[in-house]
Amino acid sequence: MYGYRPVLLETFVEKQRFQGTCYKAANWVYLGQTQGRGKLRPAGKQSVPIKDLWVYPLDTRSRDLLTQ
I want to staple 53 with a disulfide (CB 3.0 to 4.6 A). Which of 8, 21, 23, 31 is the partner? Predict the structure, then answer.
């Protein structure tokens, strides 16, 4: 409808509550952790829980497509 085709899915898993086991088992790629700073955060302070970032490529060329 908008002329875009997604090439990557992303999700955030709250580290204190979950381990992300289902994402690991489903071949999602772990990229790292957030810093726990929300959009409306006080400067330099953790205001939201730290989360793990997982991505799932929908296209084998997703890395090349995203770096164009």
Answer: 31
pTM of this prediction?
0.79
Give the whole-angstrom CA distance, residue 54 versus residue 15: 12
In a domain, 58, yes or no: yes
**Contact yes or no for 58/8 (Cβ under 8 A):** yes
As a whole number of angstroms, the distance between CA 36 and CA 48 comes to: 5
| Domain limits for position 43 | 8-66
Residue-by-residue DSSP string for 34-61: --S--TTPPTTS--S--EEEEEEESSTT
Q: What is the pLDDT of residues 40-64, one digit of tens each?
A: 666 666 678 889 999 999 998 988 9
